[in-house]
Amino acid sequence: MISVLARRNEELRTAVKERLCEGVSVEDFVHHVWRFPLDKLQVVMEQDWPVCQNHLDRYRATLEGRGNQSTAFRVICSRLLNDVHEAFGMRARDMEDEFLDSRGRPCLENAYIDGDPDFVRVWKSNREDVLPDWESVKTLINFAAIDPTRSHQADELLENPEHVFDPPHNVTLPHPFDQPRTFQTMPTTNDITDDALRIALYAKECFTVYADRAYATALLVDGFKGSLWYFDHHLAMHTLSLNFSSRLGLRYLTLILFAMAKCDMQGAGFNPLFQRLHGLSSGDRVAWTPIENPEKVGEDNCYIFPLRKGEKRRPFFVIDDWVDAAYRFVAPGTTTHSVRTGVLGGRVSHDSQTLKMTWRPQDEDHEQVILGHIMARLPYEWLAHLPLEVAFAAAYSVEDLEFPWTKMGIRLPRELEDVDPPSLHVSVYPEYQPLWEVGSVEDFKRVFVQCIECHYHAFRDAEHLHGAISERSLKVHNRLAADGRHRRPLGILTDWEIGPQPRQDDDAEHPMEIGHGSGPFTFIAAELALDIQVFGTARMHYYRHDLESFFYILVWASVHYNLNDKHRDAVDPHGLLREWSSKEFSSRSKIEFINSFYGHPDKISDLVKSECDELYTTWVRPLRRLFRAAFASMPGEGDDDEDYDFETCNGILTFDNFMRVIGVTPRRFDRDRVLPPWCHILWRQAIQASKKTKKSLRGKEMFSKELDDLAEGNAAVPVVLQPRKLAKTANIFHGFIVPEEPKPPADDECCMSGCAVCVYDLHEEAIGAYNEAVAALRTSLTSLNVPRSEWPPQIRPKGISSSPSPQQVKGAVLSAFEEIERKLELKRKEKEAEEARIARRLAQQKKRNQLVAIKEPSSVDTVLNELYEGLRWVFFSKR
What positions does the domain Fungal-type protein kinase occupy (predicted)? Predict the structure, then answer.
């Protein structure tokens, strides 16, 4: 029987193989991945870097089992690094990083693999008592297993460099040794050896660090040959093998070691959005700089996202706390932080918010787009249970985030040719409390019912199935009650973007998820977990599967939650429920619990908290009987299932039955009720967020069409809720946004009623902000020595100063008021004159009508005349 570890390793091997790009040149790798400058690359490759023959002989002896391979290889690397630093006028001792080997050092804390890499390149620490961890690993070097039957003739290869290096398949940089018939093409196999798999497992360890790594790199050494490897969430790639027993191979090895030593944190694969703030603690206006050393990852860190089209001020988000993570290796994942929002050059807010970053397939909608569709179809009472108060929403492609392989022109593997790379979906919304902080069992019940009702109506009315119900997706929002004094817990259902799409076959539990109590399989329906275990994917996701997930949340909460103390038990789940988080045992354990095999339910009931006894007795046990009846009704193997309703288990697992079993009467609201004003505001926010999201990934034209379709498809939505026009593209000059001068208010925009905030007051503030932006832009252009003759006309100085003084601005505003008063007075006089003319015409028309009435004959005379004329035509028709 294959062990769980072996099965997961094989799943990882398959995942990497399907995403593997081969034939990358070393030059491309060190320049695009490690950000090594081209001029230095050319210098390194244009000269020889000799190594003592004794050092090569000693290393060759280790390949035959004599001596330590790590020590011998480290001597060669140290020699090359010293020489190349000296050639560039540097000292090797001043390097900010160093090599650490596994001999004599404490082991790293591993989650996926036993044993450490042979070498790790880490940043130096100022503290001697600090031991290396995966967060400080820049890159790693590992040796392939030694084959004692192989022969390594370093001496012969050293004298004949023409046989040592094969040409890369994709070259985007000039190769310094392009000569005809010098190289031979190396065939690609796309195989993942055990040594390559070990490299992938070490890279997987790097993805568990706090700063959520963007990618990880490694050097795999096999005798005198070596290749560079790269792993991220979408693909893996490696260079062709080089042989460093020759002069040419030593040049490449020197280039690799030097580039490895000089790469910064972004080049090493740390999240480029992760920055360090300055001026935060002092209360001054803040700025940020890249983090140079993982040791400085601590306080005053933030996320900085790329500036999008139309944005004039770049926001950032100060990280206060890490909430949770479900980060995947070569698969999508999610990280969540507690943050505070700030703007460059401004101050930071004091209100905590939640920042959620999710890697999703590029063709899938952002959560705000999904919520916009749901919002248009639900009664507004249910909207209070959706995360609609979004402060920031965006989606970024791998090109926006500047992943290295997007610039390398590599050929993607066949499995990825028709698959769009993932995009990073970002949302910032109010900070909600976790489910166990609700405060009491009664409030827990209330919040739970609100979430399950909202979930049902989103499915029935908006035709959207959530599909990812877990304790993370159920949140609590403490809103003020009507009296303004007491806070009322409100259930919020989040994580709408994950959806019911199948989980991938490499979706094993993550160390961070296990460390926080639950993993991706903890609350998944037993049938879906079985499908994933057997077929690698879920075949069909029904509404009843989400009901089953809600049921597992009740069981989990009864055992692990201290609701009165707002506390959850230790991170390690209770033994009887630990198997729920395991991909291999989740389905079996849940079925045993529901079907009462081996006395399983009785053992779990002994673990229930005393405060949750009533919850377990009145809700969990009746629901367990409901699911047991549903499971028993399913056709067995070979049974006729043509007439069986798998969607509801023949009507057993429905929302109404679920609510009836727990003794709750569902609330009913009228869909045709008018939306309150706050819904209008949230709808516009959702539309604007979806505009920016779609524009950043799919283009302006396609997204405009989608918004038009959305507006036309919802006839019940008021006109004020329809999407507005797309924002105007910003004018860019030398990388700076050229501010546009605010337009004065139109004549009919001021009501002249003495409003607290008049449109002219707002215009005056906009003029002041415009003048500040112009002054800042002039300063920046002057510091860059850009000639003033090339500046845009609207920012060129006119005379001494082009910025109007406050008195001039005030005078302009007063003049505008006088002009608007004059025009309004003129309109009033014209209106009075028109009304007078209409009154005169009405009076004249009335007189004419009276005269006509006097002259007209009576109705009797008219009838007699008509009768007489008719008789004449009858009797005298031939006259």
Answer: 184-374, 433-556
For residue 685, pLDDT beyond 90:
no
Contact criterion met (CB below 8 Å) for 292 and 319: no
Count Cβ neighbours within 10 Å for each residue of 185-208 and write b for 16 or more, e otherwise: eeeeeeebeeebbbbbbbbbbbbb
List the single range of 115-119, 337-341, 709-713 with lowest mean pLDDT. Answer: 709-713
**pLDDT digit string (tens) for 687-703?**
555 555 554 444 434 43
Boundaries of every domain in the chain: 4-262, 272-431+674-729, 439-667
Amino acid at 702: M
pLDDT, tens digit (0-9, with 9 covering 90-100), for 514-542: 333 345 678 989 888 887 777 666 678 89
The span from the CA of 658 to the CA of 548, in Å, is 10
CA 226 to chain CA centroid, nearest Å: 35
Residue 504's pLDDT band (cuts 50, 70, 90): very low
Cα 37 → chain centroid: 31
Per CATH, the number for 439-667 is 1.10.510
- Give me the mean pLDDT over the 242-267 stretch: 91
Alpha helices by DSSP H, 244-294:
247-262
Q: CA nearest 119: which of 76, 60, 171?
A: 76
Q: Do residues 784 and 733 lie in contact, with contact meaning Cβ atoms separated by under 8 Å?
A: no
Q: The pTM is what?
A: 0.69
Cβ partners under 8 Å of residue 688, min gap 6? 724
CA-based nearest residue to 306, from 283, 333, 272 = 272
- In sequence order, the 6+-apart residues with CB closer than 8 A to the CB of 536 are 505
Q: What's the rounded Cα separation, in Å, for the pair 240 and 230? A: 13
